[in-house]
Amino acid sequence: MGKVTNKTKPFDTKRSIQKATGKTNPGRQFSLHSDGKEYRWSNRLERVGVIRAGIPYDSIEIISRRLNNPVKSVLAMVGIPQTTYNKKKSEHSLLDSRDSELVILINELIDFGLEVFNNEEEKFQRWLKKPNVSIGGNSPESMLDTITGINEVRFSLNRLEFGNLA
């Protein structure tokens, strides 16, 4: 029998530590521009701060444009009556923490979806509206009314990104 050679590389501890601490890849920045102000976060703790502070009702209109849906359908997703939205928007009020969190998570999901679809907005929009086997035959868009639904859509996008069933 011939000699067996080992082709595996030795474990590089320094490289592993750099990867774990994120020094090789700077964190992702998220932002939402609404009512003349920019809201930024790069990790979950910063996101919690933005959610607790609240974001303007105007941000619903931004999500509406990004999803290519009427404001009325986004209001139904978030569970805000049209009259409340009109009044609070004119007063430049802030969404409560639950609604702020939904809007922020939808915004992050749109960013991630566009990244998965290589910034091809039309393809991503079509994907959002089509029934999807990996989320029980529901359209991804119909799942955006709960945090669990948003997470399921994100998992579906992850599977799609890596070539699995989505």
What does this protein look like?
- With about 170 residues, this protein is mostly helical.
- About 55% of the residues lie in helices and about 5% in strands.
- It is built from eight helices and two strands, in the order H-E-E-H-H-H-H-H-H-H.
- A two-stranded antiparallel sheet has the order 1-2.
- Helix 3 packs across helix 4.
- The radius of gyration is 20 Å and the shape is globular.
- The chain starts with 12 loop residues before the first helix and ends in a 5-residue tail after the last helix.
List keywords for this structure.
single chain, 166 residues, mainly alpha, 8 helices
What is the gyration radius calculated from CA atoms? 20 Å
> Which structural class should the secondary elements be placed in?
mainly alpha
Report the mean per-residue pLDDT as an integer: 88
Q: Strand-residue fraction? A: 5-15%
Count the strands?
Answer: 2
Low-confidence region ranges: none
Helix fraction by DSSP (H/I, runs of at least 4): 40-55%
Order of helices and strands: HEEHHHHHHH
Shape: globular
Specify the biggest β-sheet.
2 strands, antiparallel
SS summary, helix count: 8
For the record, give the distance between the C-alpha atoms at the N and C termini, rounded to a whole number.
47 Å
- Strands of the widest sheet, in order across it, are 1-2
